[in-house]
Design goal:
The chain is α/β, with parallel strands linked by helices. Helix content is about 65%, strand content about 10%. The strands form three sheets. A six-stranded mixed β-sheet has the order 6-9-10-3-11-12, sandwiched between helices. It has a four-stranded antiparallel β-sheet with strand order 2-1-4-5, covered by helices on one side. It has a two-stranded antiparallel sheet with strand order 7-8. The longest helix has about 50 residues. The protein starts with a helix and ends in an 8-residue tail after the last helix.
Length: about 575
Amino acid sequence: MERKGRGKTLRRILSGLAAYRGLIALMLVLAAVHAAASLYIPLLVGRGIDRMIGAGRVDFPGLYGILIRIAAAAACGGTAQWGLGVIGNRVAYGAVRDLRTQAFAKIQKLPLSYLDRHPVGEVTSRLIADADQFSEGLILGFSQLFSGAVTIAGTLLFMLRLSPAVTAVVVVLTPLSFVVAGFIARRTYAMFRAQTEARGAQTALIDEMVGSQKVVKAFSQEAEAQARFDAAGEKLRSASVSAIFFSSITNPSTRFVNAVTYAAVALFGALAVIRGAFSVGSLSTFLSYASQYMKPFNEISGVVTEMQSALACADRIFELLDEEEETPDAPGSLPDDAPGAVTVSGVDFGYVPGKTVLKDISLTAAPGERIAIVGPTGCGKTTLIQLLMRFYDPQAGEIRVDGQEVRSLTRRSLRSRFGMVLQDTWLPEGTVRQILCMGRPDASEEEMIAAARAAHAHSFIRRLPKGYDTVIREGGEGLSAGQRQLLCIARVMLTDPPMLILDEATSSIDTRTEVKVQQAFEELMKGRTSFIVAHRLSTIRGADQILVMKDGEILERGRHEELLARNGFYAQMHAAGYRPEEG
C-alpha cells in the first residue's frame, strides 16, 4: 500500500512537471554535454600518460595539444554543469510555486468544516515547510539524477570499448548498490512522513500559542505551554533522528560497495597490463571511468533518500489538493433590489455526523424586521448565523431568501446581500481607506467618510498619523478593541446591505460610544432585515421578534413584553440579570 502511495505521488509530480518539458529537455542536453566532457578528459589523460615513455622520452608537442583539449573540455563541461544547475533551480522552484498556488486556491474552495478539523498552523506548514522541503528534493534530484544517469550510460560505453571483460566485473557488482539503497529507501519513506506530520503539529502549536499569548499569560499557563511545546519538539526530534539516521547510512553503504568494485577493477586491470593487453595509460583511463561510473551511484543513493522526504512532503500537499471542495455554486443570484425576506423551515444541522446542534429550527423574517437571537452558551445562536450566511448547509430543511432556496444561489450573491459585524474583529494589513472600502472598492471619498462618521470612527481616524492613509498592521495592531470594532462597523455601513447580522457587535465599545453607535445602527437597520445575536438588552427590547434558544431548539419566540408576560425561560433569564453577550 505504501509503495502504491509513493508511486501515485511520483506520477503526480511528473504530471506537474509536464509544463516544463522544454526546460527538462534542455537539461538532458546539458547533462549529456557535461558527461561527454567529463568522459573525454580521462581519455586525454590516458593518452598523455602514454606519451611519457620515460626520462628524456616525453612527447612534449603532443602533450601540449592534449592539455589544450583538456582545458577546453573542462570549460565546456563546467559551463554545461552551471547551466544545468540554473535551469534545474528554475524548474524546481517553478513547480513548487505552481503547487503552492494550487494549494492556496484549493483553500479558497474548501468548506469551513475542513478548517474546523485542521489547525491553521498545520495547514500553513503544508504550504510553507512541506513545499520548501519538496523543492529541495527536486533541486537535488535535477542536479544529480540527470547528469548521473547520462554519466553512467556514457562511462559504460567507453569501458566496453576499452575492455569488455573488466567492464563485466563492474556491471556484475553494480546491483549491490541498488539493493542497499533500495532496502534503506523503503524504510525511510514512512519515517520522513512521520517527520513532516510532527513538524506540522509543532507549527500548529506555535501558531496557537503565539496568537493566544495574552490568554496564556493571563492564566499563568506559560509552564503548560512550554511543556506542550517540549513534547511536540521531542516527537519531532525522535522522528527526525530516525529518518536522518537511516537515510545517512545509504551513502556510506554504497561507497563501500563501490570501493570493492574499484578494487576489483584495479586488480583485473593490473593483470591485463601484465599480460600486455592493456597499456598503463589505458589502465589509468579505465580506472577513471570506473570511478566516474560509480560516483553517480553514491550521489543517486543520496538523492533517493532525499526524495523520500520530498515525496512525503508532496504527499501531504496532494492530500490537501484532494480534499472535497464546497458544493459547487448554482447559477442563481439575488436581484439588487431584493428586500431581504428570510424563511427558515425545519432545519437540522450538526458539525459532526450523528451529533445534532440545531433541531427543527423554523423562523420567518419579513423585510426590514429585526430578529434577536438569545440563549445560553452553546445553544446554537452562532451556528444559525453560519447557516444563514451559508458557511454550512443544513442536513435537513431549507433556508430561503426572498423566496429562493439559498443552495440555488451563488455564495457570492447571497453573502453580498448580508452585512456582518462580529465580536471578533478581523482587519487585513493596509491603509484605513483600503480596510473601509474592502466591500466596495469603487466607493467615493465622500461615501467612505460618511460611513466612518455614521459609525463614529471619523474622529479617531483623523487623529491617526496619516488619517485615512495610515497603514494598519494585520489584526489592527496599535488600535484599541473598540477602535477595531468601529472600523468593522464602518466597513459594513459602506456596503449598505439589505440584511444585517450583528453578533455582539458593540461588545468591545465603551458605554458612551455605544449610545452613539446604537443610534447609527438604528438608522442603518431601518428598512433592513436584521439578525441581532446576543446583543445587549437595549437592542433586544426593541426587536420585532426575539428567538429564545436552548440546546439547539427555539423554546420561545415573541416580543420582549410578550415573553416576559409568559413567565418562561426568557423571563427567568431576564430576572436573573441575564446579559446576552455572556451567552
